[in-house]
Amino acid sequence: MYWVLPFVWSMSFWDSLLHGAPPVTTELLPEDLDYAAALHSEAFARPWSGDEFAALLAQPGTFGFVARRVGSSGAPLGVVLVRQVLDEAEILTIAVAPKARGHGIGRLLMDSVLQRLHAERTASLFLEVDEENDAALALYRRLRFVEVGRRPAYYADDEGRRTSALVLKRTLR
Ligand SMILES: CC(C)(COP(=O)(O)OP(=O)(O)OC[C@H]1O[C@@H](n2cnc3c(N)ncnc32)[C@H](O)[C@@H]1OP(=O)(O)O)[C@@H](O)C(=O)NCCC(=O)NCCS
Prior knowledge:
binds coenzyme A; Aminopeptidase; disordered N terminus
């Protein structure tokens, strides 16, 4: 009987009980692009269409992942798109469905990216993030990204209020 206790008390047990089967990532495929656009539109004020995702994915060195619950073939819960040029890579976008946030899906997507870039001996991964995006900053800091630049007044909201973009870098080797 005692062998079940560690499992019962683990976060993954409670998470799967409350939110369904655990999430897994798979390569972003053409059939996922409209889903990717829908996720993007729920996350950003200027959404990218499925065609825009397709055009980016068609560029050399661009790849992505989607996250779904194990066994699900429907709409993914999150998407990440990355562009790799020589030994540097850049996160073009990452978005998790609002209802699925805070359950490790962003981390899972980023881990998939890092794993792939490690395998390809990529030296550095860059991204830009709004200085006021607490959730994204928490995710990136946890993954050991460091600030290497700042673009003042880079983002503007509907009221015209401006915030800076932070340029973050994660060294991979
Ligand atoms: C940023 C985003 C992708 C994070 O995805 P997520 O699945 O919610 O993140 P996770 O659950 O994997 O959490 C990762 C870490 O961030 C922390 N975190 C998540 N949401 C947070 C919040 N709102 N405030 C503070 N910390 C937060 C988690 O606690 C976790 O830290 P831990 O590993 O120390 O526990 C998601 O919030 C999102 O889609 N936001 C809208 C789009 C966006 O801003 N994209 C980034 C643009 S640069």
